[in-house]
């Protein structure tokens, strides 16, 4: 029972902090704000998260895990016989359509770039991992062992760029053209 209550508090804190970060940004969200919005005392919050950095790291870890799961799902779908162009559209749309996670992703990147070295290091590690997963997915789609590292390194920042454009409200009409181009590029491994 105590373990369930603890994980319930932790979950509630993470959910509230995520919402506040989306609304106010990381810099303008304080632990006091999070405690107040969660409906717990600052002491209780500090029991779970002695620093804002630790809370941000947990939010980041959850976010990274979610994106990694999406990429794993993409790899599994590639075994289901989807055409490569359709598969890429599904991946792009799935990742960029989550507004809440998208906002958190952008805020976390901003924080990593503007002074949070541990978060920056975490992104560096995860981007390497995600690139590897994309390469693996491309090999499975094409049923070969060619080197798709260059194409994977194009797809990953493309996802970030499409996400930012989506959050800004830029029309996504170019997604069909982008996936056609990438599908053609996949036929020419580097």
Question: What would you say this structure looks like, in words?
Answer:
By secondary structure, this protein is mostly helical. It folds into two domains: 1-50, Arc Repressor Mutant, subunit A (Orthogonal Bundle); 59-186, Tetracycline Repressor, domain 2 (Orthogonal Bundle). The chain has nine helices and no strands. It has helices at residues 2-24, 31-38, 42-48, 52-78, 84-96, 99-113, 117-142, 149-168, 175-186. Helix 6 (99-113) packs across helix 7 (117-142) and helix 6 (99-113) crosses helix 8. It is elongated, with a radius of gyration of 19 Å. It starts with a helix and ends with a helix. The mean pLDDT is 83.
Quick structural overview:
With 190 residues, this protein is an all-alpha fold. Helix content is 79%, strand content 0%.
Based on the model shown, name its key terms.
190 residues, mainly alpha, Arc Repressor Mutant, subunit A, Tetracycline Repressor, domain 2, 9 helices, 79% helix
